[in-house]
Design goal:
Layout (H helix, E strand, L loop, with lengths): L3 H15 L5 E4 L6 H13 L15 H18 L5 H8 L2 H15 L3 E4 L2 H13 L7 E3 L6 H10 L15 H19 L13
Parallel strand pairs: 1-2, 2-3
Length: 204
């Protein structure tokens, strides 16, 4: 069973942030060990072979990558068919991932803009999306990481990231890079003169 303490903790953190008149929140992670968890979530939730979801994580060589694929394949064979999102999260998601999922769901409830960082955050978002598809309306995907499965995962969600810089950093780096662009776009939308307001359209 999914750890509801983690879900509730994530929701509580976001509720506290929302009281500070913040309407935008970014989600990132350290990316140490949890690319494997994310690959398992992706494989189950997207119904894809594990080989298509696994990348080099923090820098595995080809031999280590094959070993990683072998171990995760064995794990999938051991657990068999799983279809319930909460069961999949409980089986393969770390506490930090389940907490992030709860936080994303609460951010949507608070009508906050949700900035999604790299592969792990996107895999968690996928779980949140499966629980509440409406969350997509509030999401902005900041970047496409260099992790193998991320491009395929973004394609599955039918979304386009703002940046494609080959990042493999984690820790919300993509959110930090994308935020000024989002802020600038908002300023242009709200403050930039149109042809009509500037009188350009009326000139002969």
């Amino acid at each position: 069973m999914i750890n509801y303490k983690c879900i509730d903790k994530g929701k509580t953190l976001v509720k506290n942030i929302a009281t500070q008149n913040t309407n935008i929140i970014g989600f990132g992670e350290m990316g140490i060990g949890n690319t494997s968890s994310s690959s398992m979530l992706m494989s189950y939730l997207c119904d894809l072979p594990i080989q298509e979801c696994v990348g080099k994580g923090t820098g595995l060589n080809n031999k280590q990558l094959q070993q990683k694929i072998k171990i995760l394949t064995q794990a999938k064979e051991f657990h068999g068919v799983l279809t319930d999102v909460e069961e999949i999260m409980a089986t393969f998601g770390g506490f930090e991932m389940v907490q992030m999922c709860g936080a994303m769901l609460e951010a949507y409830s608070q009508n906050m803009v949700i900035l999604v960082d790299g592969f792990i955050a996107t895999a968690v978002f996928l779980a949140a999306f499966k629980m509440n598809p409406s969350i997509m309306k509030n999401a902005i995907f900041c970047h496409q990481s260099d992790e193998k499965g991320h491009e395929l995962l973004l394609s599955y969600l039918e979304v386009e990231p703002i940046l494609k810089l080959g990042l493999r950093l984690g820790e919300g780096t993509g959110c930090a890079l994308a935020y000024p662009m989002i802020e600038s776009a908002l300023n242009f939308l709200n403050d930039m003169a149109s042809f009509e307001s500037a009188g350009v359209s009326d000139k002969p």
